[in-house]
Amino acid sequence: MKLVVSVGGSVLAPDLEPGRVAAYGDVLGTLAADHEVAAVVGGGRVAREYIDAARELGGNEIELDQLGIGVTRLNARLLGAAMDGPVKPPEAYDAAAESLRRDGLVVMGGVVPGQTTDAVAAALAEYVEADLLVYATSVPGVFDADPNESPDAERYDRLPAADLVELVAASGSLGSAGSNAPIDLLAAKLVQRSGIRTLVLDGADPERVRRAVRNGEFEGTEVVPDGVGEA
Ligand SMILES: Nc1ncnc2c1ncn2[C@@H]1O[C@H](COP(=O)(O)OP(=O)(O)OP(=O)(O)O)[C@@H](O)[C@H]1O
Ligand SMILES: O=c1ccn([C@@H]2O[C@H](COP(=O)(O)O)[C@@H](O)[C@H]2O)c(=O)[nH]1
């Protein structure tokens, strides 16, 4: 199977704890024994802190995105170091696809301003024709409202891709650099377009990613292609 895993910076390195990065490296490395594995790493709190500081200094949104991309690539290097020694993460989809073909494993961060690594993961999944896309994030799925703001928010177990697009668009998440949402709008649209099976789960423990891939056991939200499961 060809697998793309989006590893949120907030789950990989919330506090730069090497043990957690090693645990992710171990899980992805083990999965790579049986599958082709591409990991796309986010920027997390550190990216947001840089972006906030640069915004106060008067940086424009593209400059702030570029800072964010820099941090995602640092995090990608960190995860790469945990797996196979430090490597420079590919900066474009064709280079990432080439590494994936050659090595069966690739780790990358951001690509261009104006999006998040959610969209990078969805685009890479479409580019390499992945069988499965997993978002390992800081919340246990997609909810009908932000679960960190609304204690009564309910999780979707299965969500048609069109509904995901609608929900993300309604939340106004297509915003400024460093904004947070379960998946950004571009990612949601790419997931819809590609029809690739997509899971959103709590990635705090990388074992959840392993179980989801290995046994199909997972708690979170499965984004299903439009029309699937409808009467
Ligand atoms: N409807 C929703 N369902 C789930 N999460 C939501 C929703 N709306 C907003 N969120 C927010 O989306 C965020 C998703 O996690 P987060 O921003 O930490 O992204 P990440 O991709 O895991 O990591 P990174 O920090 O690298 O961006 C959470 O902070 C959560 O509060
Ligand atoms: O392709 C990309 C990836 C990221 N950015 C910017 O970086 C931050 C942090 O990325 P997350 O995926 O949200 O952790 C993001 O908010 C963007 O500002 C980008 O511009 N392009």
TrEMBL record:
Q: Report the locations given in the UniProt record.
A: Cytoplasm
Reactions catalysed: UMP + ATP = UDP + ADP
Pfam families annotated for this entry?
A: AA_kinase
Q: Which GO terms describe its molecular function?
A: ATP binding; UMP kinase activity
Look up the record and name the pathway of this protein.
Answer: Pyrimidine metabolism; CTP biosynthesis via de novo pathway; UDP from UMP (UMPK route): step 1/1
Q: Which domain of life is it from?
A: Archaea
Stated family = Belongs to the UMP kinase family.
Q: What is this protein called?
A: Uridylate kinase
Q: Which organism is it from?
A: Haloglomus irregulare
